[in-house]
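tool=predict chain=A
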Amino acid sequence: MMPSLPLVQAPMAGVQGSALALAVSGAGALGSLPAAMLSDEALTAELSVLAASELPYNVNFFAHQMPAPDPAADDAWVAALAPYRAEFGVAETGSTASRRPFDEGVCGLVEPFAPPIVSFHFGLPDEALLRRVKAWGAVVMSTATTVDEARWLVAHGADVVIAQGWEAGGHRGHFLSMDPSLHRPTLELVRAVKAAVDAPVVAAGGITTAEHVRAALDAGALSVQVGTAFLLADEATTSPFHREALLQPHETVVTTAMTGRPARGIPNRLINDLGAFPEAVPPFPRAAGAIAPLKVAAEARGRADFTSMWCGTSTEGLRAAPAAEIVAELTPRR
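tool=predict ok
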């Protein structure tokens, strides 16, 4: 049960659910569900909808290691945010984690649904968990930002490598090195990964038009993964603030300010004030918890001061439309 078009909708936590995935899969591409921020109940409900559709789909999980508790670091981050909490009347300091790695509990919940494709970000889960995923027949994909990461993924059981170029929006998928200077543009990375590993390669980053898709396929990619192009889809849950920012002239930056891990997006007030890489930010995923109540308070005043607006470097051709139309526009003409 595989898609007919060489196009994967990138899993985008916080701006989509199963509705977008189903619309994309129904149009002949591969829809994806981001699962790292879903509760057990929400994940079960979404998987039930996807499984009932009998369409191909991908479920994406994070494979990060949770950091050890560090109350001092958390307190330092809350202190850095104190002026904003005073300004917006926010007493709550937020939770310490909002993104769950793929673990025994998640695996047991997902196993009965046996999703046909499972993708991971930040590496792979441990060997025993990966064996369970493969035992139900899933194709396993994972993200590489360097050739070394691509080699590691194939050596440790990934069936498909997602080559995430520097242009990609959202979280960088690196896991072997935290040095962003090692990252390459998408087409360059695709060629290098294709030459280095004996596995299919999916290109990701800066792909928003049919011409971009064709260039990635010509570079050796079997398929492409597209996120930004779907942010304005009718079926996406992208916030009005995020939608408006996408349609205005903007820049993008790679920053740790929102979650503690590098991610590319449109800068907001927090990023502009504290810098792209604040010294006080705690390790991923703890930073996001303290920002959450500030986001709610600011958005209630009609402001996006603390709203994550993930976005790749290209917004060429971006428009609001049903997902099926976006899939058609991204499909290269023969």
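The mean pLDDT is 96. The two ends are 24 Å apart (CA to CA).
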